[in-house]
Specification:
Distance between the termini: 58 Å
Number of domains: 1
Number of strands: 11
Strand content: 35-45%
Order of helices and strands: HHEEEEEEEEEEE
Radius of gyration: 22 Å
Helix content: 10-25%
Length: 161
């Protein structure tokens, strides 16, 4: 006759076997994305930049942390806001990846950085109307950081291109 379960009992071999079986079920039902560690480290690196984080205002329902690996089939527009800046980008498929066209307000010449895991930071500068672009960007997680000459930097959250 087995003893009824008690949470006050010490951890034993039966507990280990139960947790191992549960772990196998979870792994089959909802496996950990293979790039989760890289994405997490990337997000923490961006947080360490000590920038003001913008809020995602509008994004298609299909996008997300665990989005499919398929390339986008149509352009999508995403808007980010903070207390000091607004950034709107359009992400469209191109022959060598995706193209990002963006606009920042208030306008003026500002450095815009494209941060990607395992890639160098790519920097461009807006024109006087606040327009900027990045060509041939590989799909995957990315974040933009705006670095005005006269104020604090602002960063978008990580999005899936």
């Amino acid at each position: 006759m087995s003893t009824p379960y008690s949470p006050d009992e010490p951890f034993d071999a039966n507990d280990e076997a139960t947790l191992a079986a549960l772990g196998r079920v979870v792994l089959l039902a909802d496996p950990v994305p293979p790039d989760l560690v890289d994405r997490s480290l990337f997000a923490m690196t961006l947080a360490a930049l000590e920038t003001e984080l913008m809020t995602l205002e509008r994004m298609p329902e299909a996008a997300g942390v665990r989005a499919a690996e398929a390339a986008p089939t149509q352009a999508r527009t995403i808007t980010f806001t903070s207390t000091s800046r607004t950034v709107m980008i359009t992400v469209a498929p191109g022959p060598d990846g995706v193209r990002i066209d963006g606009w920042i307000a208030p306008t003026g010449e500002i450095d815009i950085e494209l941060h990607r895991p395992h890639d160098e930071v790519v920097t461009t500068r807006t024109d006087e109307d606040g327009r900027f672009a990045f060509d041939a960007v590989a799909p995957g997680p990315a974040s933009l950081v705006a670095r005005p000459d006269d104020g604090p930097a602002v960063s978008t959250p990580v999005i899936e291109l």
